[in-house]
Specification:
Oligomer: homodimer
Number of strands of chain A: 6
Shape of chain A: globular
Largest interface: A-B, 96 and 96 residues
Strand content of chain A: 15-25%
CATH architecture of chain A: 3-Layer(aba) Sandwich
Number of helices of chain A: 10
Structural class of chain A: alpha+beta
CATH topology of chain A: NADH Oxidase
Chain lengths: 228, 228
């Protein structure tokens, strides 16, 4: 495995400084139409590196990402995604998948390296690994990998925004068709697509969000959070 | 529903400026032990507001968050979370849940307001809502709400980090016990817990991440991404 990147891009492609986290979140909107300008390779590297830093249960990292930039491949992906125009328009579309079996089959490596790096007590590593595998055996693995892949994909989406790109997360696709077209193993869950590029048209008006009192509760379900 | 917050906290509680997105991601580590210092209320408000800005399919926002700060309640939550010490130590623990039924029952409101705000074409709003409900009827709702809640919870975790707090996302809990203790409806999925506070002890060594070539592919599953 590898260490954190020592140095990441700290400016946007236009030379502007990166936005604050709050601005990244507030400015992010799902982009409907993309211009063809490609995402520079060094930015794709940085966006993927940041996504790879996402946390996961026992550091098992069940996420995998297929980066689709080729014109013909984006058209194939568009067909498997109910013909959404943005899939073929965006210069880069990420297929985010989660591995339900590989994550268990290759867990040894994670636990051995965790002990070598002293992230876990080497004396207890076998017990720790057994605990992890016992825990996973109680989980619905489709739910579990979907949860985890979304941590990394959300990080990726916000990373792209922080570098000044526009994004569109998508859940409208035929998983079987996506698997077939891109050689994805049966055991994988196709979790989401993420288009990355530059918007071609102004964004649609903001659709609003539920008030905090509706979605956040104080101490107990149903007791509305009251904002200061 | 409400608009985006016009003004969000743009400094940390110690007066320092917010970190760049890349630093937020690189500095974030799962905290094992927390100090008792509370999270100031205005920061909890900002963290919740940012989480609420997360995107969701058709803007349906299936996430709900129970903010647990009371000592006795954190001890009750700890019991339902395999007695993990950090649940009782952290001054604030968020229970993140997803609503499988309410999200459909209350969809009208989202579509009507979307049309009023001209986020969707008012002429097409009925067809759009039908399409959404047809789509949801094809989804495994436990998977769907887990995906969505993790978008908002990841945003929340990174928001807390950007304000200089430490966090620990957790998946080790007994969902039935959490539901019983906090009055959560049967139809809900308990997706994750997020502890927010200040670390009490230095972080464990970084456990490493898979190389990008292992988790990212070029155009097709299995063709390793080669970083520049």
């Amino acid at each position: 495995m590898h260490n954190q990147p020592e140095k990441l891009l700290e400016v946007r492609p236009d030379g502007k400084p990166l936005k604050s986290f709050a601005r990244v979140v507030l400015d992010r909107r799902a982009t409907s139409h993309f211009a063809p300008d490609p995402v520079p390779r060094e930015y794709l590297d940085a966006i993927l590196e940041l996504a790879a830093q996402a946390p996961s249960g026992y550091n098992l990292q069940p996420w995998r990402f297929i980066v689709v930039q080729d014109d013909a491949n984006r058209k194939r992906l568009q067909k498997a995604a109910f013909n959404q125009p943005k899939v073929a328009e965006a210069p880069c579309v990420i297929i985010a998948i989660g591995m339900k079996e590989e994550v268990k089959a290759r867990a040894d490596e994670v636990f051995i390296e965790g002990a070598q790096r002293r992230s876990a007590d080497p004396e207890k590593i076998e017990a720790y690994q057994k605990q992890a595998m016992d825990f996973l055996s109680t989980m619905k693995m489709d739910v579990w990998v979907n949860r985890h892949v979304m941590i990394a994909l959300t990080t990726m989406m916000l990373a792209a925004e922080s570098y000044g790109f526009d994004t569109a997360p998508m859940e409208g696709f035929d998983p079987a068709a996506v698997k077939k077209e891109f050689g994805i193993p049966d055991e994988a869950e196709v979790v989401a697509l993420l288009a990355i590029g530059r918007m071609r048209e102004p964004e649609k008006p903001y659709p609003g969000r539920f008030e905090l009192a509706r979605i956040a509760f104080t101490e107990h379900y149903g007791r509305p959070w009251s904002q200061r």
